[in-house]
Amino acid sequence: MHTAIPAVLTELSALDLSRWQFGLTTVYHFLFVPLTIGMVVLVAILQTAWVRTNDEKYLKLTKLFGKIFLINFAMGVVTGIVQEFQFGMNWSDYSRFVGDVFGAPLAMEGLLAFFFEATFIGLWIFGWDRLPKKVHLATIWMTALGVWLSAYFILAANAFMQNPVGYEINEAKNRAELVDIGAVLTNIVAINQFPHTITASFMFAGAVIVAVGAYHLKRKQFVEPMRTATRFGLWTVLLGGLGTLITGDGLGLAMVQTQPMKMAAAEALYDTASGADASFSIFTIGTPDGVSELFSVRIPYLLSFLSTHTMDGTVEGLNNLQAQYVELYGPGNYMPVIWITYWAFRWMIGLGLLSTLVAVTGLVLTRKWKYNLPNWVWNTAIWAVPLPLLGISIGWMFTEMGRQPWIVFKLMKTADAVSPGINGVDVLISLVVFTLIYGVLAVVEFKLLLAAAQKGIEEQKAPEDADKMAVAY
Amino acid sequence: MQLNEIWFLIVGFLFIGYFVLDGFDFGVGMALPFLGKDDTDRRVLINSIGPVWDLNETWVIVAGASLFAAFPEWYASLFSGFYLPLLIILAALIMRGVAFEYRGKGHTIGADERKWKSRFDWMIVIGSALPALLWGVAFANIVQGVPLNKDHIYTGTLFTLLNPYGLLGGLVTLTLFFTHGLVFITLKTDGDIKDRARALATKVGVVTTILAASFLVWTLVAHFSVLGFILTALAALSLIAALFANHVKREGVSFTLLVFTIITAVGSLFAALFPDVFPSSTDPAFSLTIENASSSEYTLTVMTWVAVIMIPLVLVYQGWTYWVFRKRVSRKSIPAGSH
Question: The complex's ipTM?
Answer without folding.
Answer: 0.90
